[in-house]
Amino acid sequence: MGVTFHSDLILQINHYLKNIEKIKTFAKHCIKELGLKGKIKITLSKHQTGMPTAGYFDPETCEVFVAVHNRATADIMRTLAHELTHCRQQQQGTDFPYDDEGLQPLENEANISSGILVRFYGRKHPEIYADLSPANLQEFLFPNANNRKIIGS
Q: pTM, whole model, 2 decimals?
């Protein structure tokens, strides 16, 4: 099992450096739980994937792309688990149709699988939700505004 991570993170580097190890550990957990084989390239990017989505799986190369800029760690992990589920589908010989109707059962499976993976991982690792605390949410929502306050904080 090989995992290669690529990252073009420039902005919010301190935030992501703290969380990159959490994301790598979670990716390895998912790869084990999903029974994935071979080398899997995971690209974490500050840019969106070029599609109207936060993640993308390329069935030709078994490469996963996940946009991470301005997203909570648990949300990044859910997207990563979703795309890795598509990798499992591909490794099991699933053909990926090009139409939405044909793709929907595969998307449903990936949504369920990713939710389960994050939920149970989060029970053992509650720190994946740390950036959702009220104090951190203030900085997450308004990174360049020192004087803005969330109501009730």
A: 0.78
CA distance 83 to 114: 8
Closest alpha carbon to 78 in 53, 58, 99: 53
* Cα-to-chain-centroid distance, residue 26: 9
List phi, psi (to 5°) of 136.
-75, -30
* H or E element, residue 6: strand 2-7
Q: Which DSSP letter does residue 151 get? A: T
Closest CA to 27 of 100, 97, 77: 77
Residue among 50, 4, 53 nearest 27 (CA):
4
Beta bridge partners of 39: 2
CA–CA dist 136, 130 (Å, integer): 8
Dig out the tokens for 65 from the structure: 């792309």
Neighbours of 114 (CB within 10 A): 22
Per-residue pLDDT of the chain (153 residues; tens, 9 = 90+): 456 555 443 334 455 566 888 999 999 999 999 999 998 999 888 776 666 789 999 988 889 999 887 888 999 999 999 999 999 999 999 999 889 899 999 999 999 999 999 999 999 999 898 887 666 555 655 665 555 444 554
